[in-house]
């Protein structure tokens, strides 16, 4: 699984933050490592409004053979929003791969035609 970090205009990407993001994603998504080709991380700072919480992290996971999955986490600091988004992505991947496994398990047997 390749991790690509894209900082926004208001976010400075230093080595400590980069290491934290990679460690957190590897820790949270390790069981999907062979099923994902890439995870893109988009970090941005939100302008403070009545409902905005400060920082935003958008994760885009690219499972092999499937459409990309996207989740967003917001929090008062970057570490919290990365952790929140990683947990959301974990739940999304569990649901997606769980549905695929159920579909394969419950698939009807192919009908065989017998020659007379």
Helix content: 25-40%
The span between the termini is 52 Å
The rounded Rg comes to 19 Å
Query: Which class in CATH terms?
Result: Alpha Beta
**Helix count, per DSSP?**
2
Largest sheet: 4 strands, mixed
CATH superfamily: Ribosome hibernation promotion factor-like
Q: What is the count of distinct domains?
A: 1
List keywords for this structure.
single chain, 116 residues, alpha+beta, Double Stranded RNA Binding Domain, four-stranded mixed beta sheet, 4 strands, Ribosomal subunit interface protein
Can you summarize this structure?
The protein is α+β, with helices and mostly antiparallel strands and 116 residues long. It has helices at 15-29, 78-105; strands at residues 2-7, 36-45, 55-63, 69-75. 37% of the residues lie in helices and 28% in strands.
């Amino acid at each position: 699984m390749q991790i690509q970090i894209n900082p926004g205009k208001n976010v400075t990407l230093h080595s400590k933050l980069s290491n934290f993001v990679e460690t957190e994603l590897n820790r949270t998504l390790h069981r999907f490592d062979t099923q994902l080709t890439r995870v893109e991380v988009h970090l941005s700072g939100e302008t403070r409004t009545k409902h905005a919480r400060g920082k935003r992290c958008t994760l885009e996971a690219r499972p092999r053979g499937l459409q990309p999955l996207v989740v967003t986490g917001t929090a008062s600091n970057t570490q919290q929003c990365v952790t929140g988004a990683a947990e959301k992505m974990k739940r999304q991947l569990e649901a997606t791969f769980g549905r695929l496994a159920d579909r394969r398990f419950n698939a009807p047997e192919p009908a065989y035609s017998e020659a007379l």
